[in-house]
Amino acid sequence: MGLGEHVGERILEGALPSSLRAEQRGEVAVLTLARPEKRNALNDDTILGIEAFFLSLPAAVKAAVVAAEGDNFSAGLDLSDIAERSTVDGVAHSMMWHRAFERIEFGRVPVVSVLKGAVVGGGLELACATHIRVAERSAYYALPEGQRGIFVGGGASVRVPRLIGVARMADMMLTGRVHDAESGYALGLSQYLVGPGEGLAKALDLAARIAANAPITNFAVVHALPRIAEADPRQGFMMESLMAAIAQGSDDAKDRLRAFLDKRAKKVTEF
To answer: Angle, to 10 degrees, between the axis of helix 44-55 and the axis of helix 87-105?
Structure first.
């Protein structure tokens, strides 16, 4: 299914910049980076539009997909935006990116991204804020800030080491090392690896499955799981116990467990 095929209802028209397009496909919202002539470079309007999208999701949406027009997910920060920026303005700019991407990482719904071509600099930072990453075999990953005389500012120094470790990120920044799709999959930059043109369909399928989960479970995975993983083990175990009790006490959980015990629910089988 190509991105050019209009199969969803356009949403948030007039609220987003021309570099973004949004639509709703059932319970899944799709945000498309629509600046292919600039390899989907991320300027301020685009970042603020991403923030607005995740703050304004319709109530019926239970999962989201971030995709891109053209051959590239995103070549990163539009460097023309920072050429004359002061130090004070630079801090505020970085914090604006942090705020926007936090709307993804700790937002209302789980988010799946479709990666292809350049997933570079700020594009990698955007991808790492999503929860599930589907990479097509054309995808490649780089953090060229070291060669540009700058430092990452959109959250990479926090999110990327969680996925691949500090040493591997340092290698990317110090040497300009580029990882291809297969290497990125092996390192954990993506959880799925698919053929050319197959990313969107895979992401939509995953998002539909996610949307079918109990809302409290999705909330726990998005909001509680990362905090538990970073906590002191004793605190983590307590948070896990509390979250488990909250989830299993919901009417939704009771209905789903009853369906399983009555053999009305699907069992786990080989995928």
So the answer is: 30
Beta partners for residue 63, in sequence order: 28
Q: Is the pLDDT score of 3 beyond 70? A: no
Tell me which range, 11-20, 166-175, 254-263, is most confidently predicted by mean pLDDT: 166-175
- Residue range 9-211 forms a domain whose CATH class is alpha beta
3 state SS of 209:
helix
Contact in structure between 186 and 179 (CB atoms under 8 Å): no
Structure tokens at 218: 């999705």
Placement of tokens 């070549």 in the chain: 75
Catalytic: 270? no
Residue 230 a catalytic site member: no
CATH number of 215-261: 1.10.12.10
How many Å from the N-terminal Cα to the C-terminal Cα in the chain? 22
How many of the other CB atoms lie within 10 Å of CB of 218? 19
Extents of the domains making up the chain: 9-211, 215-261
Tell me which of 23, 51, 105, 125 is the catalytic residue. Answer: 125
Strand residues in 62-212 grouped as ranges (E): 63-68, 111-115, 118-120, 132-136, 140-142, 179-180, 192-194
Average pLDDT over residues 67-79: 94
- Out of 102, 145, 230, 270, which one is annotated catalytic? 145
Q: Please check whether residue 234 is in contact with residue 223, taking contact to mean a CB–CB distance below 8 angstroms.
A: no
pTM for this model (two decimals)? 0.92
